[in-house]
Amino acid sequence: MPDSFVRPGRRSHGGGFDVALDYFEEGISSGRLTNGDKLPSERDLATQLGVSRGAVREAIRMLQALGILVSETGRGNGTRVESSPSNAIGRILRLQLALSLVSFSDLTETRVALERATSAAAARQRRPEPLVRAQKVLDRMSDASDQDTFNELDTDFHIALAEAGGNGLMSDLTVAIREAVHSPIKSAELAVADWTGTRRQLVDDHVAMLQAVKAGDAEQAARLTEKHIRSAYATLLHE
Hints:
This protein has about 240 residues and is mostly helical. The chain has 2 domains: about 15-30 and about 40-80, Winged helix-like DNA-binding domain superfamily/Winged helix DNA-binding domain (Arc Repressor Mutant, subunit A), CATH 1.10.10.10; about 100-235, Four Helix Bundle (Hemerythrin (Met), subunit A). It contains 11 helices and 2 strands. It has helices at about 15-30, 40-50, 55-65, 85-100, 105-125, 130-145, 145-165, 170-180, 180-190, 195-215, 220-235, and strands at about 70, 80. The chain has a two-stranded antiparallel sheet with strand order 1-2. Helix 2 (about 40-50) crosses helix 3 (about 55-65), helix 7 packs antiparallel against helix 8 and helix 7 (about 145-165) runs parallel beside helix 10 (about 195-215). The protein starts with 15 loop residues before the first helix and ends with a helix. Keywords: DNA-binding, Transcription, Transcription regulation. This is L-lactate utilization operon repressor. One of its GO terms (molecular function) is DNA-binding transcription factor activity. It comes from Cutibacterium granulosum.
């Protein structure tokens, strides 16, 4: 591990927690800390930064919740930088939705705007591997009779389409929003009286979307994606 890796960052005027947080922020921003880098022990970091181990531990836990650090126990393991932005954003959106600080309607409108863009990008880029995965998922959706399995496959399909467009941030945001609305959509699917008919319509929507993407028709792919999201929202949430 190079000496520069453990060099403290800029000193904060706040308490030990702020000093530790500034160290991580400065290290990541400057490139000293990159994906996969293993951090020094809490004891070593506390000594180097001149703060308590508790302050270092608190900063690490916050960054774990934000999907920036991961910790593993056992010999040879420890804490390392490993970004998981979709998990962090999804967690925040789920909590905001639960607290009614973000409405399901607002999330749906955001999803429409985002997935119109990702479907259009997928039609323009048509990255082979994600499209092959989307087709395999779609084949399984046609045979999925229970709502739990269908919901998981539905999420996988939309993520694959987002990845087919080649924009990593859009993919992460798609994952985050899908995770945020997973529970209410699942509950709504379980409450649908005619699940067989609803499932058939949802599968048909996905077939049409994927066909438009494969044909390279970005405008049609975006239009069908919006139609699908709004139709599913109206059917499942009765709005």
